Fold this sequence. Notes:
Blueprint: E1 2-6, H1 13-22, E2 26-31, H2 34-42, E3 46-49, H3 55-63, E4 67-70, H4 80-96, E5 104-110, H5 134-143, E6 147-153, E7 156-158, H6 165-176, E8 179-181, E9 188-193, H7 194-207, E10 213-216, E11 219-223, H8 224-235, E12 239-241, H9 251-254, H10 263-269, H11 278-284
Parallel strand pairs: 1-2, 1-4, 2-3, 4-5, 5-6, 6-10, 7-9, 8-12
Antiparallel strand pairs: 9-11
Amino acid sequence: MRIFVTGATGFVGSAVVQELIAHGHQVLGLSRSELGLAQLKAAGAEAVLGTLDDHDVLTQGAAACDGVIHTAFNHDFSKFSENAQQDGRAIGVLGAALEGTTKPILVTSGTAMLAVGRVATEDDRPGGHSPRISEPSADALVAKGVRASVVRLAPTTHGAGDHGFVPMLIDLAREKGVAAYIGEGDNRWSAVHRSDAARLYRLAIERGAAGERYHAVAEEAVPMKTIAAAIGKGLGLPVESRPAEHFGWFAMFAGMDAATSAVWTRETLGWTPTGPSLAEDLEGAGYF
């Protein structure tokens, strides 16, 4: 297949590009910079310059390929609602280019806050508490006959080059002088290594069905206290319970319980994670 990948030079997207090429697919990658174009070409991909607001570029890229993997998203939390709307518009444009065909499109979402007090599954749907609209946008494409499905990433998608939630916790620990958790630290995050997530994207674009949700989750429930302990060890700092205010704007994420199952995903796609665990990565992936 020739696959159009947005976010192709990002933390997850670049791993997806490598995975696709390694398994015989051709890749057309979208990049926002000339440096990214060079990076993609060095990886063996074709490349096109553009952003999620360049709808003509998105349309042409999707139409020229056999499928689309949409990993791009602006994670500037100060403009999160605005960025979610941008994402929704981009998904609509990409999907419109595939209408009337059987070409698949994978849309990226997350497992965080799918369920409270229990393990979330692929059958769960996001509530109205998040401004992110990637999943409703994918459902709107399915209603138009587009073969759209969703890959939900664990909140901790880790590995070398990670700039997500765990590095934010590490930066906060450095600033405050303590690796902290809220309450007893028994709220749970799911986790996946970026290489395993990339393999799931490949399997889903090859075998996925319209309207389905696939969970990129290798570890179902890692207690926050365990994560804090690994950060404390890596930084040589004490590990302590602190009130939510300690975490500032990040408090909602630090306190969220996001245990997530991927049993159905594994069985349906034959996906078996083999990458390092979060604890192993925190000991050897250059986080400190």
